[in-house]
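Let's practice the habit of predicting before peeking. Look at the sequence and jot down your guess about where helices and strands might fall. Then scroll down.
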Amino acid sequence: MILSHSVHCAEHFFAALARQPAVLVRVVSTQGSVPREAGAWMGVFADALVGTIGGGHLEFDATARARALLAASGESSGPENAVPLRLRFALGPSLGQCCGGVVHLAFERVSASDLPVLAQTLEAPLTPVALFGGGHVGHALARVLAPLPFSLTWIDSRDGVFPQDLPARVACEHSEPVQSAVPGLAPQSRVLIMSFSHAEDLEIVASCLLRQRGKADLPYVGLIGSKTKWATFRNRLEARGFGAEELAHVTCPIGVPGITGKEPEVIAVAVAAQLLQMLG
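Done guessing? Here is the structure:
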């Protein structure tokens, strides 16, 4: 069994580690062209992998070495009482790879007793996202963002629009009027606005701009819609006293350029990609 790599890897790893020991393989340092950055990791169990250090022969070889270490180790060692084994891997012909770089890996046997320490070191930081709107695109976005490094607050003024089987790290909030949720958003939230009503969209944008004026802590305010919709909104927001520099903070249309499909799932992927670009 191979579990997919995502921000949920730590959760999967912790759950499995509570039942059986593993070897934690971490990328300690790198030189040149390599598949993963320092800090990437995978958990190697006797019958499962959680996470990835880049795949290919590097990961195949590292997995074999980790399982050999797991089989040879005693029943009670961990980060607090064992020095990790460190190995150098040149990504050249000997590994059947042509990246040309060098990866230094640490191999560390861990067990359930190490969970408190690992919980502090392996869980990736999550960027807050506020999604206004529980329509088709909103539902698609919630699914796309779930495995990515975001924590999502999903907001709508209507009852009964959120699914019962919510993805992990999604908190739903009913807000009436919907823009009243803006002052309570987490600092540094990326805001996505796609309610069922253009009137609601306008009020949410205005509330975001007011918060940005006072706190400057919403680095991205994205509004779904066409250039025509934004031209109309711009005129109405100018009439409310917002200046050109403030209005330039709004992204409309949203999503990476060049993706023209209008299906909810396509829009969701384009928007998620744009959010990921901002993390870099």
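How did you do? Residues 129 and 224 are 15 Å apart (CA to CA).
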